[in-house]
């Protein structure tokens, strides 16, 4: 943590830091600042956003750690080429996806999930302890109970998918839990106007749980693929609906 959040002053600093980090990060990801461009003048940014130069330096350090900027003598701090960015960083994922996301960006997100989750499900089916399987069942039951409460359903859904990664017993998979959580939250955000709600996903989640509980690695993998396919279809449906609404607004007199 860059700031001490144990005091009111520390909490305020964290909030200002997060706001500035998100603002600058989104500006870079959205192409408002292009590779090779210098960062805005530190004095101007400090004055415009009411933050100290120290806070701005800390934000730049965070962006440098994500591969987005670099500081060089005489030329100052500039945006790095996109090929240098850590696109698996949860912050960069969150900055990249929003109301203006494209079908290509959504496809990339689901390709990432397909590369990770089905394999994790298969390994979990072979290795999970009985206690872990019971915890997965509890996560599913919470999803079922809160299927009409988006916030609580989302919490249970995140726990369900993160549990599977930890059930592999592989610490490398476990470290991907926050990445998958971010990908799931983005999927929810991109499909938040889905007219079918969350109910269609329940049988597929149940199928994943049952496959893992029955130690059927192949079924666990294939059912996770089906679940990811359904989520991608929901996102694409929502993106299409948004494009149609935008086109109608542009045609309106």
Short structural summary:
By secondary structure, the chain is mainly alpha-helical. It is 69% helix and 3% strand.
Walk me through what this model shows:
- It is a single chain.
- The chain folds into two domains: 8-84, Orthogonal Bundle (Arc Repressor Mutant, subunit A), CATH 1.10.10; 97-251, Up-down Bundle (Four Helix Bundle (Hemerythrin (Met), subunit A)), CATH 1.20.120.530.
- The protein is 69% helix and 3% strand.
- It has eleven helices and two strands, in the order H-H-H-E-E-H-H-H-H-H-H-H-H.
- A hairpin with a 3-residue loop joins strand 1 (69-72) and strand 2 (76-79).
- Helix 6 (130-145) runs antiparallel to helix 10 and helix 10 packs antiparallel against helix 11 (217-251).
- The longest helix has 35 residues, at 217-251.
- The model is unreliable at 1-13 (pLDDT under 50).
Average predicted confidence as pLDDT = 86
Strand order of the largest sheet: 1-2
CATH topology of the largest domain: Four Helix Bundle (Hemerythrin (Met), subunit A)
The main β sheet shows up as: 2 strands, antiparallel
Assign the CATH architecture of the largest domain. Answer: Up-down Bundle
- Name the helicity range: 55-70%
Shape: globular
User: What's the CATH first level of the largest domain?
Assistant: Mainly Alpha
Distance between the termini: 51 Å
At the fourth CATH level, what is the homologous superfamily of the largest domain?
Answer: GntR ligand-binding domain-like
Hey, roughly how much beta strand do the residues contain? under 5%
How many domains?
A: 2
What does the radius of gyration come to?
21 Å
**Uncertain spans:** 1-13
Order of helices and strands: HHHEEHHHHHHHH
